[in-house]
Specification:
Strand 8, helix 12 and strand 9 form a beta-alpha-beta unit. Helix 7 packs across helix 10. The chain starts with a helix and ends with a helix. Strands 2-4-5-7-6 form a 5-stranded mixed β-sheet, with helices on one face. A 5-stranded parallel β-sheet has the order 9-8-10-11-12, sandwiched between helices. It has a two-stranded antiparallel sheet with strand order 1-3. By secondary structure, the protein is an alpha/beta fold.
Amino acid sequence: MNVNTKQLIENLGNSIFANLGNICMIIFLYFWASNNSHTEICNELNVPIILIITFSIMQIITRSFFFKKPSVIEQFLYLGIIGTWVFVLILVWTSNVVDLIIILNFTFISLILINALLPNNFQLLNSIFFLSVLFLSTFFSFSTAFFELKLVGSFTVSLCVFSLILSLIIFKQFQRREKSFKRLDLLLKDLINKRKEIEQKGLQHSQFLASISHDLKQPMHAINLYLGSLETILLNIKMKDIQANKSFKSLQKLKQSVHYMNNVLDGLLEVSRLEQGVSKTQLSTLKVNLFFKKIINQHIKTTKELGLRLEFFSNLKNETTITSDFRLLERIFRNLLSNAIKYTKKGGIRVRVKEEFNVIKLSIIDTGPGIHPSMRKKIFNEFTQIDYSHYKRGIGLGLAIVKKLAGKIGAYINLKSHLGLGSIFILCLPKTSSYNSKKSCIVENENLYNVLPQVTTTDASETIVLVVDQDDDTRNAIEILSPNFGIDVVTGNSSKDIISKTSNLPSIPKIIIVDGSDLIEEPLTTIDNIQEEFNKEIPVIFITDDIENESLLIKSNQKVTLLQKPFSTSKLHQLIQSILSQPL
């Protein structure tokens, strides 16, 4: 049985208060009698005063040791205190000392009020004490010939009756309060249990989404690579203009759908990691204009192919910085931009950045169909879609993911929309207090993906790239893409497999591409074995599902570059060219 600590402390305090009242009252009565030269009554009060003080102190000590409920010893001590006070009452009334009897009655009035106001002290013995004082005071009041004593006795009797009624009321209120506390305690426990169940279900939900996202990563990774090779093949096939136009449109729709799927999968995985506590927000300083321009440049080709304009306007200085999580902010902006491209059929998208009241406002403005007022609040809920049949795709998670990720970096999103005109999604970000020209290390790493000259300085047969991946589809897709990348690839599922195929190479490999999710061999072991075979520290592209946890490799090995799954063929091409362009 659980012990209510508050109630125990309250009971102990009540006991100390009541017993200290007993001690103070008997001492006060004794000193009054001694100061008024009632020597005979003082001598008779010597024993009662010692008994009351002793019993009261013992009761306090007993209550301190027996917290949960009154012990038998405590009951006997309380009975002793009551009996002693009744003896004092009889002793003083029979002394016929008027002033002392008056003082005695006021002493008993004080004791009665003290006990009446202590709800836990309403016990059988306490009732006996009240009734004893009531009957004795009534008897002596009618027996005395002094009017003053009759008046004081009647007042004491009246107060006893009042105190009994008051004690009963207080005790009933105390019982109701105890019942309310118990009900409240049960409700709180039930609420805590339900909250734990909800949190557990939420965690299971996040784990389920993370598991699905992770399982879909590999096929999506292969789809991206095959899509790049398919685009290359179609460009090299001679077709009639009508067929070429249809193929081109189909390919663009396919690329747009795959890109949308990539964003949703990445967002789902990121949210589930954050909710499970696996991933933490990592703040860094980044330049606002440079950051958003880089992402926009990566979407210009897609928008041109769709016949849309993509514009960027900013009234910020190029050195203006914000402090935020690079990964999450990029994910939010990419989702909003992809969403705008997805729903815009004609016109274009404008990205506008401005500062208002120390807040950076990023506005993504599109000329899409707009959002109905009834949907504007619901649009950020999970599994909510805009009800346009010719736009309806996906499962309605994009904006829900954006809202969750924005909350993780202290940002918030506003929406303005007009049917038939378009929508404006406004992302409000806290701004840093000063300009900072120092680039974030994360920004510097991401700048590796900037477009570099798409040429190699050596012949393809001499530009050898080793690819270690246990997935056959990924290896086949890279082999198909290699001629267009201007490289010669050697693929295998382990370092042993690769080494067995590289005995007659014309030159040392320029790059090693390793999949971090390889289960056949530890990826770090693969890298070490290959570099040991060629006795050279060869640059490594490390393909990973979790760029955050694998980022420690960058610190331990400066020639390791991380690449997050899934990625486009153009991104892989740019990264390979950037590594090949670096001086040896």
